[in-house]
Amino acid sequence: MMLLDLLQRRLRVKVIALIAGILIVGFGLLVILNIGREAQVLVDANHETARLLAASILGSIQSGMLQARPDVIRRLVQDLRSELKDVRRLDVYRANGVEAFSDLETLNRVNQLAKLDPEVVKRIYRMHREPGERISHPLFTRAVETITSQETYESLDGGRVLTLFRPLENRKRCQACHGEDHRVRGVVRITLGVEKLDAELRAARNRQIVIAALTILGVAATVVVFLGRVVLEPIARVAAAARRVGAGDFDVRVATVSRDEIGDLGRVINDMADHLKAARADLEARNAELATTLHSLRESMEKVALLEQVKGELAKFRVMPSSRPPCRASRSRWRRLSCSSRSRASWPSSCPSP
Fold first, then answer.
1. Are residues 61 and 177 in the same domain?
2. Per-residue H/E/C for 28-86
3. pLDDT the model gives residue 345
4. How many domains is the chain partitioned into structurally?
């Protein structure tokens, strides 16, 4: 609630909030796009490495098969499992899903079509064991049916792995030993751990987030400082001057340096203060003139009242004409009343001093 009230009252907070929102949204989208693009590059590079490794393993297996040396292939598979740390699984399956180079089914068939070296046959017999679990993976079936490589990410032992299925085609050089009734001899399954890839993806994501955060802070700070000096502080000065003018201080002036809208507003405030000051001076002069006129009017009214009083006094002493001259006392009183009705400035010398 306090933050909302502060947001409603402070222009600086509004500007900072707006800038922060725009930067977060803009750079957030940019970071998401960059993370996705960089992740795709890393994934593609990892796929390429996995394909090269699978092609190398597949070539070695095919070379051993062409030499009719399944014992060499089996030893090669065992060595690769132990030496390559990223290899989680490396298996060769016949087209029917049974593990190859384990039982003697293929050996007996090949030995019938092409007589093998007895020493090789003995070594293979000594390596005989029961086949492992039969594979029934959908991508294995697809690789056999389409004779195309298949790839997928899956979980293994609580971790994420990349599994590749590479078909072993029944080429013309292989048909002398295996016959021509099938197109695919088997499938090589290679499972690679992607811990390094995941670590690189996390590092790339964290790096992008840190760069975006620092960029947002830097840009926001720069924009806020710039707006504070160029916009907010001049507006604050104009507002302070307007408040002082509203309080009656018409001598205040806004320092106008820029020629932008804020400078125009400051000059308008200054012109308004000048006009208000001139209007107040004119009003004070008119008030003084009115006070003088009112004072003169009061004096005139007092004179009129005094004349009315004199008139009343004269009415009391009005007498009928007679042959007798007025007495001295009457003449003296008449002179005083006549002189009192005149102003002091025009007091005649014949009037007695009051």
1. yes
2. HHHHHHHHHHHHHHHHHHHHHHHHHHHHHHHHHHHHHHHCCCHHHHHHHHHHHHHHCCC
3. 44
4. 2
